[in-house]
Amino acid sequence: METIIEHIRNPELISPTFFVIWQGLRIIFLLISVFFIGMLIFLLFKSGYMDYRFKEDYAELKKTKPAFKVKVDKNWDEVIKQAKDEREAERKMAIIEADDIVNDVLTQVGYEGGDLLEKLEGLSKEIIPNIEEVKDAHRKRRDIVYDPNRSLSREEAIELVSVYERVFKDLQVF
C-alpha cells in the first residue's frame, strides 16, 4: 500500500508510457463529456423544454402578466359603453356579453366546465377573490336571459360589469 501511495505522490516513479496513455485517456474522456453535455443542452432547447420550463416563467416575472396568450374577442370598452347606455336592452346585452367574455377567457386559460357557473365551482378565492360576486352576477345574467320582464338599472349594469372586470384584473388579462 505504501508503494502505491508513493507512486501517487511522486510522478517520476510512474513509467512514461503509462503517463502518456493516462493523459490520452483523460483527453478522450474530457472530449466525450463535452460532447454529451453539448448534446444535452442542444436537445433541451430543441425539444422546447427550456421554453416551457424557464422562458415562460421569466416572461411572467418580467411583464407581471401571465405567459399564456388570452385573446378577448369582443371589445371590452364597447361592453362598458353599453352598460352605461340609456336603453335597458343595451345594458342587458352588455351583461350577457361580459359574462360570455369571462366564460371564454376562463376556457382559454384552461378551466373546464359546461358554463361559467361550473367553471367557477372549480376555482378558489386565491385565483378569483370576488368569486361569490361573479357567481351572483352570473345568476343575474341568467335571470336577464330567461326573464325578459326583469328590469336592469344603469347603476346595477355598471356594477355587474365592474365585477366581471375585476375577474380580468385578477387573471391579469388587462
List keywords for this structure.
174 residues, mainly alpha, 8 helices
What would you say this structure looks like, in words?
By secondary structure, this protein is mostly helical. The chain has two domains: 2-63; 76-170, no CATH class. The chain has eight helices and no strands. It has helices at 2-9, 16-47, 49-63, 76-83, 88-109, 116-121, 131-146, 154-170. The chain is rod-shaped and about 105 Å long.
Low-pLDDT runs: none
What is the string of helix and strand elements?
A: HHHHHHHH
Q: What general form does the structure show?
A: rod-shaped
Indicate the percent of residues in helices: over 70%
Number of strands: 0
The percentage of residues in β strands lies in: under 5%
Distance between the ends: 73 Å
Q: Tell me the count of domains.
A: 2
| Overall pLDDT | 81
Please give the structural blueprint:
Elements: H1 2-9, H2 16-47, H3 49-63, H4 76-83, H5 88-109, H6 116-121, H7 131-146, H8 154-170
Helix pairs in contact: 4-5, 5-7, 5-8, 7-8
